[in-house]
Specification:
The protein is of the alpha/beta class. It contains five helices and six strands, in the order αβαββββαβαα. The radius of gyration is 30 Å and the shape is elongated. The relative contact order is 0.18.
């Protein structure tokens, strides 16, 4: 009854199944490992952020350029506040609001973007507190320049004057007539009337869309493996039923020839 499994046609089907199942399982396991790595990275980033809060602040220039080792560390810089911008569409504790971003002109001539705090509602320059005058020294968590579209950063354009979608040197250099550090800080203690902005996770370390894509792909590959097995049994069953019908004379002659192939 099952001698048809030795025909060239079924040899090809069997080889395909034997190769496809391990491949799907391997790919599913690899995607699962990628998700687990991101979970571990997220936990490590949280632990690192907690440790950074307890460390003494260091001069900004000692921590640049920003990488995973310096991300979130306490940085200090001295200068004078200059241009103030608003960063809309920023959520905090489940509420929509905006960041108040002020550029600190340092002695070196470059400007450091400083997030002085967060306010609820739509971005409104009239509600944003003015920056302190004179020379100031700021202390806050060091952050890397944002990339529009990543970690919830808005990518929309056409914002009103005085607003920016992303906090990055590439975005800010077009808004001010001086160089900007490829980094920014969020103050540990927000200025009066605002809420301090917590440290964000470094890129590719959080449980973001990419992480859950890996988890989704894991499920897809295991489903593919199951589908291959299902289709193999379905074809086998149809072939057996066809042979039984042939023995009873219920199939045409050309169909009988198909069985022998």
């Amino acid at each position: 009854m099952y001698r048809f499994l030795l025909t060239p046609r079924w040899w090809g089907i069997n080889v395909f199944v034997l190769l496809a199942i391990p491949f799907c399982i391997f790919m599913g396991s690899w995607q699962l490992s990628r998700f687990e790595d991101r979970v571990q990275g997220h936990q490590s980033a949280q632990e690192q952020a907690s440790a950074n809060e307890k460390q003494a602040a260091r001069p900004l220039t000692d921590l640049l350029p920003v990488d995973k080792a310096t991300f979130g560390k306490q940085a200090t810089a001295t200068g004078r506040y200059d241009r103030q911008l608003l960063v809309p569409d920023r959520e905090l504790d489940g509420r929509e609001g905006y960041y108040v971003l002020t550029l600190l002109r340092t002695d070196g001539g470059k400007a450091l973007p400083v997030v002085r705090g967060w306010l609820p509602g739509s971005a409104d320059p009239a509600k944003a507190p003015a920056a302190p005058r004179g020379e100031v020294t700021v202390t806050g968590a060091l952050q890397a320049s944002e990339t529009p579209g990543d970690n919830g950063v808005s990518a929309r354009g056409g914002l009103p004057a005085g607003q920016t979608a992303a906090i990055s040197a590439a975005s800010l250099v077009n808004l001010v007539p001086y160089d900007v550090y490829d980094a920014w800080v969020t103050l540990d203690t927000a200025d009066s009337g605002m809420t301090a902005v917590p440290v964000s996770a470094p890129t590719d370390t959080g449980l973001d869309l990419k992480a859950f894509q890996n988890l989704g792909y894991t499920g897809e590959w295991f489903v593919f493996a199951g589908f291959v097995v299902f289709m193999w049994f379905r074809l086998l069953r149809r072939e057996v039923e066809f042979l039984r019908d042939a023995e009873l004379g219920l199939v045409q002659e050309e169909d009988e020839e198909r069985v022998a192939v």
